[in-house]
């Protein structure tokens, strides 16, 4: 059954496959046809608003639970937002909980453990596009995160007396 057809119906459990980013994902990155844009109302300020409403319809059809199926390292924007904002748990195929920290800067990638000559740290999985890093303190199973480098004092330009 499609999401559109499910409107008004309910089920105990809902499975939503294809929660990946990209051209054939949800939300899709395929641009709208220019002719279609002429017939549509003005674009909304919230990104992917129509797809968001459709996703909400799918989520609210379940009485007991929802299973979102995605591919590791290709998670949908909507899945990332649920993990970041609603503390949704991410599990692997056999049900083991994966500790997930969404990148605080880009919001599109998970922080993964990396090592350098200075030691271990967390870096955004989208490195090169996003260079966010966080310091690691504590055990590797459940890291305690603090901003790397600490906080800097504001820049004050040097002024000469004239």
List the keywords:
single chain, 162 residues, alpha+beta, four-stranded antiparallel sheet, two-stranded parallel ribbon, 4 helices, 8 strands, 19% helix, 23% strand, globular
Explain this structure.
Strand 7 and strand 8 form a beta hairpin. Strands 5-6-7-8 form a 4-stranded antiparallel β-sheet, with no helix packed on it. The chain is of the alpha+beta class. It is globular, with a radius of gyration of 21 Å. The N and C termini lie far apart (77 Å). It has helices at 3-6, 34-39, 49-59, 77-86; strands spanning 11-16, 62-68, 90-91, 97-98, 111-116, 119-124, 133-137, 144-147.
What secondary-structure arrangement, pairings included, does this model have?
Layout: H1 3-6, E1 11-16, H2 34-39, H3 49-59, E2 62-68, H4 77-86, E3 90-91, E4 97-98, E5 111-116, E6 119-124, E7 133-137, E8 144-147
Parallel strand pairs: 1-2
Antiparallel strand pairs: 3-4, 5-6, 6-7, 7-8
- The helix/strand order is HEHHEHEEEEEE
Over all CA atoms, what is the radius of gyration?
A: 21 Å
Nearest-integer average pLDDT: 79
Largest sheet report: 4 strands, antiparallel
**Quantity of strands, as a count:** 8
Query: How much of the residues is beta strand, in percent?
Result: 15-25%
Can you tell me the overall shape?
Answer: globular
Number of helices: 4
Short description:
The chain is 19% helix and 23% strand. It is α+β, with helices and mostly antiparallel strands.
């Amino acid at each position: 059954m499609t999401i559109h057809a499910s409107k008004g119906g309910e089920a105990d459990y809902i499975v939503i496959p294809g929660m990946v980013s990209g051209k054939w994902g949800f939300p899709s990155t395929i641009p709208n046809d220019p002719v279609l844009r002429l017939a549509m109302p003005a674009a909304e300020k919230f990104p992917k608003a129509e797809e968001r409403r459709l996703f909400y319809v799918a989520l609210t059809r379940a009485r007991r639970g929802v299973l979102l199926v995605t591919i590791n390292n290709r998670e949908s924007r909507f899945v990332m937002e649920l993990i970041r904002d609603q503390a949704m748990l991410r599990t692997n195929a056999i049900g083991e909980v994966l500790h997930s920290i969404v990148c605080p800067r880009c919001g599109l990638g998970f922080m993964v453990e990396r090592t350098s000559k200075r030691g271990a740290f967390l870096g955004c999985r989208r490195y090169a596009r996003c260079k966010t890093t966080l310091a690691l303190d504590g055990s590797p199973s459940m890291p305690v995160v603090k901003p790397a480098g600490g906080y800097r004092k504001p820049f004050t330009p040097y002024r000469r007396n004239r």
